[in-house]
Structures are given as structure tokens and as C-alpha cells.
Amino acid sequence: MSNNVKATTCARVERVRIIRSVLERARLNRAVLENDYWTLPVDDKEHENFMPVGRGARTSNLCGKWLSFQVCDNKELHEGVVVDGIDCTGKIVVSHSHLWCHKSSCPICFIRGWSVREARNIEGRLTAASERGFGEVEHLTASVPVEDYGLSEEALRRKCRMALLVRGVLGGVMIFHGYRKDRLRGVLSWSPHYHVLGFIRGGFDVCRDCVHDRGDCRSCSFFKGREVREYAKDKYLVKVFEKRKTVVGTAFTS
To answer: How far apart are CA 220 and CA 71, in angstroms?
Structure first.
């Protein structure tokens, strides 16, 4: 068998394996089809230890099973209470309980179990910090330069934390992502970065509402000025996104 035929055969076998993997995860949890990040194959050569969420084996046959529901009919206590964007004023509240293993690798529990629990924990911590005067929570990313792609996650976290600190990002949480979508190749390719929920010294509204020429940021004392000057030194790109709707929602989708 020629090398070309072997390569073609191997490629077909790999495609079949990928399709079967997606179909099996979709059978367990159709929600994985809502985001192609959860279905694209992973180019994990030399980075096999970094598995995107939901790509592992199902932990138990009990994962995701409905357990019970709880009803609260004390409408007086619901006055002004908003849950997930729904005003509960004057309403009876019914909540469903499910069994979750809370493992990020589980194809069933990573969405409604693990990610929801962690997002709520993040919201609680950041809300407490906001109430103590740290300001408004901002959503950022800290991206690693190509020359540092081979470093350990511990080293990357340390360098990204320093990059954030010198730019005036105070406190918060860092959520590691090892991969980004490569649309041309149709895979997730290695591109380590962190999604960050934290506080910016002086806030970000001045930069968000600023109208200026491209070169004006360098001399500015606010965040974008600090980013331009520090990027020239360390090549770590720190970007601030649009205002969040909710902290828990941003944490959940990050």
C-alpha cells in the first residue's frame, strides 16, 4: 500500500472516529450541538493533557437525572426578586433538582452542573468585592504570545497575572482556555489564553466612550494607554470586552 493510500485511509478513519464521538456526546447531551466549540475536533498534538470541557467519559448513569422539584408559594418573599432575568414578584417559584457529578470533563454535567456551580461561586466572590468598593466587574482576555506557547500552565498563569497587574487589573478570576477555533482547518488549535473577570483601576468607561485617533492611546493614563505601553514590552495582549449583562452569565459562557 502506497504512502498516499495509507494517509487517505488514516484520514478517513480519523473522520469516522470524530463523527462517532460527536454523535455519542450529542446522544448524551444535545446541548453540545449549540456551540461548535464543543463539537470541533481538537488538534492537541503535544498538548494532550489539556482537554476542552465535556470531552471525557460519562461519570455515572445518574448524571443529569431528574431528582425532585421544590415549590415556594410564599409570594410575599418574592417581591422584587429577579432570577436569571425573570421577575418573581407575585409568582410561585418552582425549581427542579438534578443529579450532577460536577466534573468539567463529563459530557452531561459540564454545562448544567459544573459550569453553573462555578459561575455562581465566581459571581458571589466578585459581588462581595464590588460591594467593598472595587468597582464594576469587567470581562477581559489575556492572550499569550506565540513564543510562550510551550510554557507550562503554571508559568503562563503567572505571566498573565503579572501582565494584568501592570495594566491595572485588580483581583478577579482567571479561566484558562487552551484552544481557539481555527475556521480554516475546522479544528480547535492550541492558542492559550485566559478569560478574566476582574476590576480595572480607574474603571474602563473613559476608554469605552473615548473617540480618538489610533495613535493617541500611548500617552493616555487610562487602561488602553497602559495596555499599549505594556504590550510593547511583554507582547501579552489584554483586551476588554463590552459591558456584561450579568456576572454569572459571563462566567458561565467563559
So the answer is: 54
Cβ neighbours of 91 (radius 10 Å): 13
C-alpha cell read off for 232: 510593547
pLDDT at 6 over 60: no
Name the grid cell of 72: 415556594
What is the C-alpha to C-alpha distance for residues 187 and 181, in angstroms, rounded to an integer?
A: 6
Model confidence over 105-133: pLDDT tens digits? Answer: 999 999 989 999 999 999 999 999 999 99
Please say whether the beta carbons of 164 and 196 come within 8 A. yes
Bridge partners, residue 177, by sequence? 193
Query: What's the pLDDT score for residue 7?
Result: 58
> pTM to 2 decimals?
0.85
The candidate with the shortest Cα–Cα distance to 254, out of 164, 188, 143, 176, is 176
DSSP class per residue in 29-91: -GGGGG-GGGTS-B--TT-TT-PPTT-S----TTTT-EEEEEEE--GGGGTT-EETTEE-TT-
Q: For the chain, which residues make up each domain, given as ranges?
A: 3-64+99-253
Q: 9: pLDDT confidence band, cut at 50, 70 and 90?
A: low
For residue 103, count other CB atoms closer than 10 A to its CB. 20
* Spatial contact of 162 and 223, defined as CB atoms under 8 Å apart: no
More confident residue, 167 or 83: 167
Give the CB-side neighbour count of residue 128, counting CA atoms within 13 A. 7
Let me know how long the chain is: 254
